[in-house]
């Protein structure tokens, strides 16, 4: 008599055990998927922060270049802030060396060159093989006074159906007499 009562109970126990097992696996897979998504988000934010920081440094290098050129060749019309003129929006990468004809911002995407391990704009890649990225960078320069240059480096990228932005800003002062 005892066997007849236990016949259906084993099937129910197996079904409950499978349900618990599947529910646990689904939870783990959900957490894993979310972890991968957040990892990619943090990676993009880190890259964007470095690209924005690089934009500030590129602008500073051009400002220093103006002062150096003025000291090296006083007869040329170089000096504090010459490179950026009255300001504007620019696309700068590490190959930008020509002043004052800087490339204006045209909302190009940066490319990554795996050979050089550098981000640059299309056409500035000396070795070829650049891969388009999701990042756009623009450098906004303004001159609030004759001895001050404000530089804002803005990096944007598409993520999660929206647009993410990292903005860094710095102010440079004329230290050169």
Structure description:
This protein is an alpha+beta fold and 177 residues long. The protein has one domain. The chain has 1 helix and 7 strands. The strands form 2 sheets. The protein has a 4-stranded antiparallel beta sheet. Strands 3-2-4 form a 3-stranded antiparallel beta sheet, with no helix packed on it. The longest helix has 71 residues. It is rod-shaped. The protein starts with a helix and ends with a strand.
Describe the secondary structure blueprint for this structure:
Layout lengths: L1 H71 L14 E4 L20 E3 L4 E3 L10 E2 L3 E10 L2 E12 L2 E12 L4
Antiparallel strand pairs: 1-5, 2-3, 2-4, 5-6, 6-7
End-to-end distance, in Å?
Answer: 106 Å
Structural class: alpha+beta
Strand fraction equals 25-35%
In DSSP terms (H or I, runs of 4 or more residues), the helix count works out at 1
> Level of helix content?
40-55%
Rg value: 28 Å
- Order the strands across the largest sheet as they lie in space: 1-5-6-7
Q: Roughly what is the average pLDDT, rounded to an integer? A: 84
Low-confidence stretches: none
The H-and-E topology, N to C, reads as HEEEEEEE
Described by strand count, sense and barrel closure, the largest sheet is: 4 strands, antiparallel
Q: Which geometry do the CA atoms define?
A: rod-shaped
Number of strands: 7
**Tally of structural domains:** 1
């Amino acid at each position: 008599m005892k066997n007849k009562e236990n016949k259906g109970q084993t099937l129910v126990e197996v079904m409950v055990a499978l349900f618990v097992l599947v529910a646990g696996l689904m939870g783990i897979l959900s957490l894993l998927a979310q972890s991968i998504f957040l990892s990619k988000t943090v990676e993009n934010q880190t890259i964007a922060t470095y690209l924005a920081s690089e934009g500030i440094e590129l602008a500073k290098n051009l400002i220093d270049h103006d002062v150096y050129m003025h000291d090296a060749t006083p007869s040329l019309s170089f000096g504090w802030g010459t490179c950026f003129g009255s300001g504007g929006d620019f696309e700068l990468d590490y190959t930008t060396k020509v002043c004052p004809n800087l490339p204006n911002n045209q909302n190009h995407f940066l490319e990554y060159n795996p050979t050089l391990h550098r981000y640059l704009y299309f056409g500035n890649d000396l070795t070829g093989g650049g891969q388009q990225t999701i990042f756009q960078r623009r450098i906004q320069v303004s001159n609030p006074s004759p001895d001050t240059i404000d530089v804002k480096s803005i990096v944007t990228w598409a993520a999660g159906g929206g647009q993410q932005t990292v903005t860094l800003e710095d102010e440079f002062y004329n230290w050169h007499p």
